[in-house]
Amino acid sequence: MEIEKKFLVSKIPENLDEWKASVIEQGYLCTDPVIRIRRMDDQYILTYKSKQGIQKVTGVCINQEEELSLTKESYQHLIGKIDGVLIEKTRYTMCYSSGGRTHKIELDIFHGHYEGMVLAEVEFPSKEEADQFVPPDWFAENVSDDCHYSNAYLAANWRRRASSKSL
Question: What is the pTM of this model?
Answer without folding.
Answer: 0.90
